[in-house]
Amino acid sequence: MPSRWFHKVGEREIGPLTFQDLAGMIRSGTLTEDSRVRREHTEEWVAARDVIGLSRAAQTLPAAGAAPAESQPAPPQPKPDAPKTASSATPAQRRRRSRLPVGPRTLIAGAVGLVVVLMVLVVGYPWWARRAARRFPESALNRPRPVDRQALEAVRAPRPKAPSIPGLEDGKARPIPGLEAVDPGLSPCLTPDLKTIVYAAMPDEATDYDLYIATRDDVSKPFGPPRLIKSCQSPESDAYPTLSADGLELIFKRSLKRSEWAPRFFRATRQSASSEFGPAAHWGVPGDDAERRGIALPQWLDRTHFKFIVADTPQTRKVMICERPDPKSPFGQPRESAMFYNGWLPWFLAESGLRLYFGTPEGLCVVSRQNVNQSFGTEVRILDPSATGPVKGPIWVAPQEDVVFYVSTGPGKKPDVGPGDKGCKLWMIRLQ
Q1: Distance from the Cα of residue 412 to its chain's centroid
Q2: What is the model's pLDDT at position 244?
Q3: Which of 117, 122, 130, 378 has CA atoms 20 to 30 A from the CA of 322?
Q4: What per-residue string of b and e applies to 302-323 under the rule 16 or more CB within 10 Å gives b?
Q5: What is the C-alpha to C-alpha distance for residues 415 and 404, in angstroms, rounded to an integer?
Q6: DSSP states of 301-339 as a string?
Q7: Are 237 and 183 a contacting pair, CB within 8 Å?
Q8: What is the mean pLDDT of residues 344-364?
């Protein structure tokens, strides 16, 4: 029975696939040498380059559109200018050819040439064979492809009369003004007026990621110098913050250093937008004390609703909603939401609940629905990586849904990053 395989794109598993299916995907560039694959009935993910025989199988597949060998016409043969057969030569010519001597130098040169050829084949073969076996086609995922404008117009939010950020050109990524030097940065979030931003940064690896805050008086101006939120600092990794609409409540995820497992949510509050946040306290979520349970992607939907993701395994995820009667009341027990899109992780849900934004290897995407009681439709790509660069982690979308804030190595850069996420910076882009 042929082996069955799966490959991972983002957080989604694709499969089952045959070995030939994988080879065809490599041939087309859909899979790269770094793509993660696994055989059925195993839990171990390996790089495609480490699957024995996979790249060789991709190279032996016929190219798309090529005709079978038996159907290809034979190349035309040149017509001889003169007779070349032995029977056409004169008797004198045949006698002279038969008497041509084969000298010692000719024999030695032939023997040396034969030895060189054999050495190249025997000694050199492993080197160039291994190199050829490791050569994967260019990834099709990184090739810019036009956005489907008709599909995009059908799912996008209404275009605002006045842009959220004046002077920001459509589809042109820019570093977030005032925060260009932040490196690495992670998971930006803002208040709805776009005047306060909180994000995670790691100036050095002593304490892993910590939370920083920056403000500005006007959206047309750069943010002021960022400040460490000292009351939320810990030796663990503090990231994935989300701010309430009034900017007075901050919830973030704290996990073991350099680990996404054993995470917990923490909450900090302050009295006014100009005051400092108080000490962060554990914000209990049922099940977040389980050793292998993952919680992620916290997001304020409005002042009385809050969402997050629960993952018992990387393949089993659900969206949970917390609700409270008013901003001064505690939240009730989280309930599972039917709004989950069964595909990519829902990085950002619009306040209306009608659009869900997320990232894929092909760029930023959105799924939509007509009302909150329906399921989400097919994903539509908003922007491809040639405009944004590879997107890392959660995004934040302005209330008018015309500007996206995100983290990337930058347009035109490769998706891989160095140790400590060095090179990942804070960007913004206006949707076309």
Answers
A1: 14
A2: 92
A3: 378
A4: eeebbbbbbbeeeeebebbbbe
A5: 19
A6: EETTEEEEEEEEETTEEEEEEEE-SSTTSPP---EE-TT
A7: no
A8: 81
Nearest to 252 by CA among 216, 212, 286: 212
CA nearest 341: which of 143, 153, 155, 150?
A: 155
Q: Whole-angstrom Cα distance, residue 360 to residue 390?
A: 9
The encoded tokens of residue 243 equal 């701010």
Q: How many CB atoms lie within 10 A of CB 227?
A: 12
Confidence band, pLDDT 50/70/90 cuts, at residue 272: very high
Strands (DSSP E) contained in 185-302 are: 185-190, 196-201, 210-215, 227-228, 237-243, 249-255, 264-269, 281-282, 294-302
CA dihedral 407, 411, 412, 418 (to 10 degrees): -20
Q: What is the pLDDT of residues 32-62, one digit of tens each?
A: 777 888 887 777 788 888 787 787 777 776 6
Position with higher pLDDT, 118 vs 57? 57
All structural domains of the chain, each given as residue ranges with its CATH number in brackets, are 4-63+134-140 (3.30.1490), 145-430 (2.115.10)
Encoded amino acid at 408, one letter: S
Closest CA to 263 of 231, 300, 288, 233: 288
What are the Cα distances from residue 84, in Å, to 79, 89, 90, 95? 11, 8, 12, 16
d(CA 372, CA 378): 16
Matching residue, tokens 């989604």: 12
CA distance 248 to 59: 58
Q: Which of 2-11, 205-214, 254-263 has the least mean pLDDT?
A: 254-263
Q: Tell me, what's the pLDDT at 180?
A: 95
Torsion, CA 215, CA 218, CA 223, CA 227, rounded to 10: -10
Cut 0.85: pTM above it: no
DSSP state of 361: T
For residue 372, give both structure tokens. Answer: 């909150």
Q: Which residue has the tokens 């909450």?
A: 267
